[in-house]
Amino acid sequence: MPLSLQISVLIPDCEALPANISSAFHSFSSYYLVRELPVYQLLEETFIESHVKKGNFYALSYNTKIDEENTIALLSSGQLILSLDKDTYEQLGLEGRPSLYNHKKAMRFVVTLDLTDKSLTPGTKRYQRVLSSLKDRLPLRYDFLLTKYNTGSDEDQTLIKLLSQYSYEEHKPAFSHHTLKNIPCPTLYPSDIQGKTLSCDPHHFLEWLGAVNLDISCENAADSFLSTYVCPEPQSSVSQALLCTVTGFISPENVFVLLQELRQYIDEPKFTPWISLTVHGFMDSPVSWGATEHGFLKGGENLYNFVCFKNQDYWLHMATGAQDGCPP
Questions:
Q1: pLDDT digits over 264-297, tens only?
Q2: Sheet holding 174-186: strands in order across?
Q3: Alpha helices in the chain (DSSP H)
Q4: Nearest to 189 by CA among 260, 264, 273, 267
Q5: Among 226, 247, 279, 296, which is 20 to 30 Å from 303 by CA?
């Protein structure tokens, strides 16, 4: 998943935030919200050389609804993805294909531009035609989220020079954590991935994780009018658990660093039997898994979850909505 909105980490039998995991969270790259950025700026020669070709740069149109409006994403691979309504697509005159999630008539189209391809090198005929379409024929402007993993000072200067032409804000991903006390917790064994003998069923485990993240009681109290949900079996009581959440425009590289620190933590001699990492993607991103087209339909869900065990085994759960390609 190239573009992440929220990450949740659950560590059973842990009260204080481990130093290495805290450091990983706080090392997440800053991101920028820039207002009314012309799309053609992402194709300017200086921008392509300074950011696109060096990789680890991401952009996503902000507050654009994938099923109603034009949405745009720039991936670290250098692919610029434009998911366009029929009128915009026809006015731009760029080569694309009908969306996989049209109904009877094609009302949405997807244009993919590989900005690292030789045919789109600044100065070539194709580059000039694409630039003219986005700059002169139909000068699209949107609010954008931008981030780059592990930027250098020269690259920062180039980006700030671009942003200074527009209204923009710099943000750090919002981090929070709190300790849960005396919660029922499903029993998990790495060898029983289907939950047939020793472990909780994996689908029920994911449901339980969602309840914990939303602070929904899992005790099925007789006097509760809000929830009758109960923790799945087999289960045990955990005296304390640490729940961490970070929200923002988060790159896959930051997620990978966090995952490595979680694996290092659980490898140490502690009581923690497993650690869970859940990553939610943007509902209105034009892509979800790699460069696979993403649609909304009823919810736009796309997420994955790692459960890491002390023996370095792991479970990987991946979930999508109805308008998504199968995860890799």
A1: 998 887 778 899 999 999 988 888 887 788 887 7
A2: 174-186, 235-250, 4-12, 274-281, 302-309, 314-320
A3: 19-26, 45-47, 86-92, 125-132, 153-163, 202-213, 252-267
A4: 273
A5: 226
More confident: 199 or 81:
81
Half-sphere exposure (Cβ direction) of 248: Cα atoms closer than 13 Å:
25
C-alpha span between 217 and 226 (Å, rounded): 9
Instruction: Please count the helices (runs of H) and the strands (runs of E) in the chain.
Output: 7, 14
Q: Where are any strands of DSSP class E within 56-140?
A: 57-61, 71-74, 79-85, 97-98, 108-114
- Given a contact cutoff of 8 angstroms between Cβ atoms, the answer to whether 186 and 200 are in contact is yes
Q: Which residues, at least 6 apart from 204, have a Cβ–Cβ distance to it below 8 Å?
A: 186, 195, 232
**Structural tokens at position 194:** 């289907």
